[in-house]
Amino acid sequence: MLNIAVGAKLTHKTLGNCRVLSISPGGNYFYISFNSGARGGEFAVSTAHQYFSPPDGLSDEFGLRKDAPPEVRPLLEAVNKGETNGATELITALDKLREFAAVDLICRRLKLLGLELDYFLLLKQAKALRRLTSRSKDAVTVASDALARADNKKRKAIARTVRAAAYVDIGSLTEAEGDCRIALEESPDSPHPYRVLAKVHIQRGEYEKADFCFEEGATRDPSGRDEILVVYKDRVERLIRDGKKGEIDQVREHISKRWPPELAAKAFREIEAILSRGAFESQND
């Protein structure tokens, strides 16, 4: 939990004295509205404060929490002192625990201490940022840093694919497609660029091209075959959010004509569930 109360006075290194007006949870962050004299605004404070806490209220200069989990405390203490030994191990462990805000926070802590992150840590940070609310633009920047440090084609392809996925998140489809196509040249046996490229085509309504990319990816790694359902569900949800429900019929028509009957039936159930949930939420607004 974030131990900051509405009405509390905080000291920020840039803004000076602030008063908290409201706090609301949102994904991996608490959004804190504040005022500081004639100025106002909003902070996004990471829930990763279970590991680190700012000593001066809201700041990027984090200190180790006394109640940090004992199993990670030695590694946290090393990171807090600016020691890179153990940082990769710690970030890998937190990533597996899906503590993405903590991964980002610790990487930023290392940078603030003047340490240069290597390719692997930058890649972990970029992937973590994509998982956090409204941080995909930052993921593009960090993935670009990882790409600059990649020392072979395979690593370059991985960094480009992560950046391409972040580009899709922010709607930069041309940039995403460019990264995917270069990544396929650098690592033609990898399924991941095909999967991201499929998402590009889906967002453009190019469903046959998307299915082709998914199949190409599946021939390289069959374990990702079911991801097609997840991506099409995301497409339907986006169409609803954008007020384009009429285009959902195009999705249905494509699935009906092109997909195997069993998979199509599963997709239709998922689409109907999304539409039913949307209708229920509209009634209760």
Task: Write up what this structure looks like.
- This protein has helices spanning 73-80, 87-96, 100-112, 119-131, 136-149, 153-169, 173-186, 192-203, 207-220, 227-241, 248-258, 261-283, and strands at 9-12, 16-26, 29-36, 39-46, 52-53, 63-64.
- The protein is elongated and about 60 Å long.
- Helix content is 58%, strand content 12%.
- The two termini are 29 Å apart.
- The protein has twelve helices and six strands.
- Helix 3 packs across helix 4, helix 5 packs antiparallel against helix 6 (153-169) and helix 10 (227-241) runs parallel beside helix 12 (261-283).
- The protein folds into three domains: 1-116, no CATH class; 133-225, Tetratricopeptide repeat domain (Serine Threonine Protein Phosphatase 5, Tetratricopeptide repeat); 229-285.
- The strands form two sheets. A four-stranded antiparallel sheet has the order 1-2-3-4. Strands 5-6 form a two-stranded antiparallel ribbon.
